[in-house]
Amino acid sequence: MASTESKSGSSENFHTPEPSGSEQPGARWGPQHAGARELAELYSPGKRCQEWISVLICFTLMAFNFCYLVTYFHLGHTWYILLGIVGGILTADFASGLVHWGADTWGSVDLPIVGKAFIRPFREHHIDPTAITRHDFIETNGDNCMLTIIPLANMTANFLLLSPAEIYRNYPWYCYVFALAIFVTLTNQIHKWSHTYFGLPRWVTFLQACHIILPRKHHRVHHVSPHETYFCITTGWLNYPLEKLGFWRNLEDLIQSLTGEKPRSDDLRWAQKSK
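-> structure tokens emitted (275 positions)
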């Protein structure tokens, strides 16, 4: 196992292929891995279009809702806003773990629609962990933006249709939903930063150092094969308690006992590709 060292001296604990001449046939990990190349080629123009549309709609709705939240703000809402932010962060962190665990552990790239569109990036990430650092803003965040469109659109409809009194009464809930939407939207960007070992803005490294967002060292735990723990990737706050509870292991055992499906079998299949 080789480690990637940044200019600042940080070492990234990822498996990387050893060079062998001008090519790297049979590379175990990284962009030269046969499975990683095949998965990268499955990224389609249709997928790119879906991501662009999702990003544009999401950020338009987010800006609209933010303006209304500011308009209806009252000092009496201060504690509700703080509680909403904390609740939104915790919910987003758990949701990121649930989605991450589900896509890592179950399903196949060969599944209709969802396989190539949504499971493919998870398979690519384990055999080429730094691929995400080469993705632009749209590819990194498109799918997460899509997930938040419905709750943001519902909030927009409420601001347009409800009376001021009803909006005031529901304001704490809107704060929670808005915070949740922001952190869900940013989860994969935060994940990308956890794999980036040089060139990050100082405010990002500060947030990582304070464990307000997912730290780089913390996320390395997940990338120890067979990638069966520390799935939460928004802040990582819930990783330790969920691991102590055996939450993911117990859930996997239950599903395997009911379906007979083996966890991470498709993930292992792609990792073992050599040609």
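The chain is about 65% helix and 0% strand.
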